[in-house]
Amino acid sequence: MKTAILSILFIGVIVVECSAQMQIKDALVKRSEVKHEGLGPASYQDATPIPVKSVTLAVVFSALIPGTGELYAGNFETGKYAMMAEAAIWITYAAFYTHGNWVRQDARSFAAERARTNFNSKSDQFDVNIGNYLSIDEYNQAMEANDPAGWLKYFTDNVRRHSPVSDQEGKKDFADYYAWEFKNFQAKFVTKKMVVRGRSASIALVWEAVRRPSGAPEKIDMVGMFELATSGRIESMSLYFDTAKTAKLFTEITAATR
Questions:
Q1: Which of 66, 112, 164, 216 could bond 86 through an S-S bridge, CB–CB 3.0 to 4.6 Å?
Q2: What would the pLDDT profile of 70-86 be if each residue is shown by its tens digit?
Q3: What angle do CA 157, 159, 160 make, to 5 degrees?
């Protein structure tokens, strides 16, 4: 997105520069024509000399600050529009740049607060990967809306999920599992810490839930191992936790729903 905006601004600058230089040339040609217009041989002695303007210097002025070349050439009536267009382009760039930095800092603060993420000496790609893994927070929002699709959209079609009590492979199995989980629990993930290496991440999580419809509370500490696909979506998810406690919970829920 940032690259596209910068490209548009660059093209805008080039268009303004080319337009300004053409206007400079036209202005200098007109001055030359005015200098000789209507003057016969006898009139040259009485003509007031018009200073000769350098096309090269005018172009340099215009290249540095569009509009100043026209001012130098004595045709600022058109040059002022080039100057205003240039100012508008740079103001737009500054606005996008400032907003982008604000969004980036806000995202970093969120990551640092929720997952104690350290951004010191990290590349821009690290920011991107952190942003993809923070989509785990969308699990909580999807739970609140009771909409598994809001969570499933962050996973690839060939996603693999592993845990000590169940395994799923492929989007259908994955979707069926979370349809079951969303039906039987009102839950949320609490992220404790996140360690990212390339497209891989280890995340310390707490799964806090209440059973539906009884309202009995449940809490499971776990570590999640995640892998991102090149698309930025999650393609592998492995969860590790207290197997005996969780197996007992899942057995009880399965028996109750039969």
A1: 66
A2: 776 776 676 777 778 87
A3: 155
